[in-house]
Structures are given as C-alpha cells and as structure tokens.
Amino acid sequence: MITVNGATITDQEIAREVQYHPASSLERATRDASIALVVRALLLQEAAALGVSCGGDGDPSAREEQSIAAVLDHAIALPDPDEQTCRRYYENHREKFRSPDLFEASHILFAAPPHDPAERERARAAADATLRELREDPRAFERLARERSADPESREQGGHMGQITRGQTTPEFEACLARLSEGELCAEPVATRYGWHLVRLDRAVRGRQLTFEMAKERVAEYLGASAWTRAVHQYIQILVGRSRIEGIELDGAATPLVQ
Q1: With a threshold of 0.70, does the pTM exceed it?
Q2: Mind listing the domains of the chain with CATH numbers?
Q3: Which of 67, 71, 172, 202 is an S-S bond match for 104, by CB 3.0 to 4.6 Å?
Q4: How confident is the model at residue 253 (pLDDT cuts 50, 70, 90)?
C-alpha cells in the first residue's frame, strides 16, 4: 500500500492507471503508474494547501487537472527566452531547423504481426522472393503490388503512397527513404511493426535550412518548453523531499514529470 502524507493510493487506482504507461514489462508499467499517482497526489495536496484547488460541479478529473495547472502556474514563473539565447541555440543546432523532406514513395507490404515469429518468417520469405523478381524486372513493381501487397490503400494504386513527410510512417520506413535515391528500390526488405516492406523512392524534395528569422518563434517555443519541464521536475523533487511517502521508493531520475 502506498501513502502520500497519509493519503492512500489503492491497488485499484494503480491498476486503472497502468493502461496509460506502456512499458516492456507489467512490473515496470505498474511502477510508472504508481509514481505518476504519487506525483498527482502531491500536486493536488499542494493545490489544496495553497488554496488554488478548483471545486464546484463538473467532471472530477477535469477539476483535478485544473487544480494541478493552477498550482504549477502559481509555483513556476519563467521569463521568455531572449533573442540572444534563441540565436545561440539556433546556431548550435541548425540541423533541427529545416523545412521537412517531402517524399513520393511506393511499397509492397507483406503483413505479419510483430510478436509472431512464424508469420514474420513467412512474410520475410515472400518479400525476399518478390524482391528477386523485381531485380530481374523493375517494371513489374506496380503489377506485383496489386497482386501481393497487404496495404489496401496503396495496393490499388500499384503501391503508390502519394506524398509523405516525416512522422507519417514508421521510423524504419523513414530511415529507408532517407537512404534511397530517386527511382531506387531498397536493397533488402524493411521490417516494421506491420510486417516487411519493399520500398521504392519515386521522388524526393529535400528540406532546406531555415533562416533564424524563420525559425525564431519555433526556437523560443522549444526553449520555453524545455525550461518549463526542468522547472516542474525540480518543483516535484522539492515536494517529494518534504513529504512523507510510504510504500514506494522514489529517486530523482525515476520521478516523472506531469503529463
């Protein structure tokens, strides 16, 4: 049983919270959920002590979120980053401030769930066989996509996916596109959580470097958000340090920030 300054966090509350903390094991997810509930309890208790709790009618969860936001607004006040700070960050991280790459790509998907080794092996074998055919006759791509692809959206278009920017596909798929030249077919099938893909890059428009004036607002937002995150972390550590928490060991590295 976990208590926070005498208030109990029940096993039922932890079990409900676990779904919001995906992890490599149930044990890790349970610990992450428990820590999140401890932090939430600390912030709600502090909101009550400061007199900034949001009462009244309405959804209790929404009122709690409003109370947490109010206590953080009360406790944390940060100045906006000045132009000199923004410019220095921009000059040191210019690669972050580019217009997005734009790709036109085609693929053939051999579907297989990520945790089924037999299906993954079957799909890989089918992808390898199709890739050998394409090396012999690259013009067969559209026909083979219509015959064999498990992607219903692109299959009828001969595998064509249209225009893609970063974040619209999986990291593995994007990494493959970044390595290809226009018109090039992947050398090996690409594994993602959906299965195995044969990927062809049809066209690429590479992003360009943004000037500081173009990126200034984005830099300021990033620096402001980073400073706020650090300040919230420090504030939570202060609350943890002056509270009586039983049933769980907290350390600075493991204590999560407010979501």
Answers
A1: no
A2: 2-80+214-246 (no CATH), 102-205 (3.10.50.40)
A3: 202
A4: very low
